[in-house]
Amino acid sequence: MMDVCNWDGTVSAKDFRIGALSFAQKWESLNSAFPPWSWVPCPKHSWLASHELLQEEGYLSLENICISRPNEEDIDQNSQTDPGEEETSCSEKEDDIDDATLVQSNHHELHYCDFHVVYSYTFRVPVLYLRAYCSDGRPLLLDEIEKELPACSSKELPETKWAFITQEEHPYLKRPWYKLHPCGTSEFMKLLFLGGDTAQPKLEVVLELYLLSWFSAVGQVVGLTIPCKMLNDR
Amino acid sequence: MRKALQKRMEAQKYVWEGAIPLQIHLHESQVTTLPPPPPALILAPRIGYLPLLVPLIKPHFRSTLPPGVDTIWFEYRGLPLKWYIPTGVLFDLLCAEPERPWNITVHFRGYPGNVLIPCDGEDSVKWSFINSLKEAAYIINGNCKNVMNMSQSDQLELWHSVMNGRVPVRLYVWGLSEDFDDLEDISQVDSWEKISYVNRPVEIHKEGKCFTLHDAMKNLLPEFFSDESLSDSKLAGVDFEDVQKIPSEDVSSNKVVEDRGQNAYEHREACYISSSAEIKLIRIQGIEPKLEIPFSWLVNNLLNPDHFLHICVCVKVPQ
């Protein structure tokens, strides 16, 4: 069996599938309060029913996550004295007819995001795809997404670092999605496991924990490390 | 040696200069003049992309367009055309019986944003192309760096290294449930759902037996090959039993070998579809190569500038 110090930070499609299923299970058991990740099986060919192929492909999915945070500035402008009266002062303001009102009524609109983890045969690592939209279904543009998830913005993720965002067709759903580019993933995965001075784990252990570790790094970019932090922030 | 190089340059010239005659019609909803404008006749490079033709098309229809902002997109018989797929590939895939000139429709309004990724003209195409190039570089080299700064000698090295590792391939598989004798009888592609896109490198080893197009297809679409043919010939030159014996010198390729060994084993567990499923047509750069052709010839001569081999396949599947 290959030595872990020679490992290049990548995984096979089969290891990804196995890891993804166990990741979904672990997540559900540790974070029972939060919507779980689920494995969505997908046929290799969209015109072929999936039961015909024993070898199942698919992706991990987490959907309808609210990424909106109440805007502190809006609240300060609205409230007269008592911050506890935020809600009521907003509705009062709606009766006024001026530009400020139009801006305020927008701040009630919530933004949601779907996250998919898909295996890349090119880079041999998992890749995060995301799609954001309003409560009425209108898709959000990248600059709107960056407002809610500032770590995603191009200022925070220069191309020379390990990730940046591109718009691409989802490999299975064939619709436009945003993708967190996987160019440096194998490098940081290697560092994650082999960076320290502590004794190096067995490769089987590494592969088992792969997705969990990948997610702990990548999830931070979209604020998914701890979901409650994202929903209850501020 | 020089003759071989000369032949290769000829083949590459053929690819780079290949073009598709297009007859581009303005969609009726955007015609504001009577009589309607005649279609634009354009020779489109196979290796190019449709949005790059806009500077030639727009002036032609300028006087008949409704006022407002243009969001340009193309369509063939109702199917919106994906602008990030090279023109030649779109033609090979969607025109089973090649139509010359190829009649497509241009729209200046109503961009189908739920189906097509937005296109802001030349910049979008450039960005998409560079992304593909980086992806190909990663597949061949193992890293994305320095793609844009490669010297001539580096590029030559790139060619030589390709045949002992992974080859960037983009496979477009059109699944048909009807049988046909004549390509003209095939029903039109009316939805991208009918086409599966397989973006997966082909892994090859320079070992003994010549690696053919047939071997590559078995690698990419094992579900269309019966168990017998898989067990007879080795998949990419490596048999599952041999995997254990290979010394772990080069570890990343060792992982590749293990994966292939795994894949070969998994394929024998029969994810084979059925005997009535078969590959009917394979097209690369408008050519239908014989299955026995060495895959290296295809890689050396028919790559697109993005360094991907784009392969269009038409398969018949059981109902």
Structure characterization notes:
Chain B: Belongs to the ATG5 family. Chain B: Required for autophagy. The complex is a heterodimer of chains A (234) and B (319). Chain A contains 8 helices and 6 strands, in the order αββαααββαββααα. Chain A is α+β, with helices and mostly antiparallel strands. Chain A has a domain at 23-68 and 109-150 and 160-226: Yope Regulator, Chain: A (2-Layer Sandwich). In chain A, strands 1-2-3-4-6-5 form a 6-stranded antiparallel beta sheet, with helices on one face. The longest helix of chain A is centred in the last third of the chain and has 19 residues, at 203-221. Chain A is globular, with a radius of gyration of 21 Å. Chain B folds into 3 domains: 17-119, Ubiquitin-like (UB roll), CATH 3.10.20.620; 130-164, no CATH class; 166-225 and 267-318, Ubiquitin-like (UB roll) (Roll). In chain B, 33% of the residues lie in helices and 18% in strands. Chain B has a 5-stranded mixed beta sheet.
Distinctive features:
heterodimer, A: 234 residues, alpha+beta, Yope Regulator, Chain: A, six-stranded antiparallel sheet, B: 319 residues, Ubiquitin-like (UB roll), 3 domains, five-stranded mixed sheet, 10 helices, 33% helix
Helix-strand layout with pairing:
The complex is a heterodimer of chains A (234) and B (319).
Chain A lengths: L12 H18 L7 E5 L14 E10 L5 H7 L7 H8 L5 H8 L4 E10 L4 E10 L7 H7 L16 E5 L6 E5 L4 H10 L8 H19 L5 H6 L2
Antiparallel strand pairs in A: 1-2, 2-3, 3-4, 4-6, 5-6
Helix pairs in contact in A: 1-7, 6-7
Chain B lengths: L1 H16 L1 E8 L13 E6 L8 H8 L11 E4 L2 E2 L6 H8 L7 E6 L14 H20 L10 H11 L3 E2 L1 E8 L18 E5 L2 E2 L9 H8 L6 H6 L7 H4 L7 H18 L9 E6 L11 H7 L7 E8 L3
Parallel strand pairs in B: 1-5, 7-11
Antiparallel strand pairs in B: 1-2, 3-4, 3-5, 6-9, 7-8, 10-11
Pfam family, one (chain B): ATG5_UblB
Subcellular location (chain B): Cytoplasm
Subunit structure (chain B): Conjugated with ATG12.
